[in-house]
Design goal:
alpha/beta; 39% helix; binds zinc ion
């Protein structure tokens, strides 16, 4: 798990996100990557809600699906998920079921439906709960701000 603490992974995630062409459609600038325990990126995706017209295609769920297929394992208990925005409750279900070890996100979910809002009593009853880490980042914040300002 040592590689997971690396700032290199965070920095490469941020530059991968910033180099995405996220304004080619109305897609939310949600972007996710999964790294295996050896520090290799095994999955990456943006949201595909608008382009596929499917409200379930959040980037976190897409990369979890990809990673399970690629690793050919049932659980991702050695894997690190990075995502721009704190995962919503829909994605939280996928994160818990796939037993991802750790989630790093760069923007808090202020709507009250993020993974960090789960009551502590629930967390204690679960067999597995990932380490959550919020790393605030100005560049990612400004991308989101620009996206929502453009929408007005
Ligand atoms: Zn989600």
């Amino acid at each position: 798990m040592g590689a997971h603490n690396s700032l290199e992974i965070q920095n490469s995630f941020i530059s991968n996100f910033l180099s995405q062409t996220i304004y080619n459609n109305q897609e939310l600038p949600s972007y996710s990557e999964i790294y295996s325990s050896d520090g290799l990126r095994i999955a990456h995706s943006s949201n595909l809600v608008e382009s596929q017209n499917n409200p379930l295609l959040h980037s976190e769920r897409i990369v979890i699906d990809q990673a399970i297929k690629i690793k050919q394992t049932r659980y991702l208990d050695n894997c690190l998920l990075l995502t721009t925005l704190e995962p919503c409750t829909l994605c939280m279900g996928s994160i818990l079921k796939s037993r991802i070890a750790k989630v790093i996100y760069f923007l808090p979910n202020d709507n009250g439906d993020g993974i960090s809002y789960l009551p502590i009593e629930w967390i204690y009853q679960l067999n597995h709960f990932p380490v959550l880490e919020l790393v605030e980042n100005k560049e990612i914040f400004s991308q989101w701000k620009t996206f929502f300002m453009d929408k007005r």
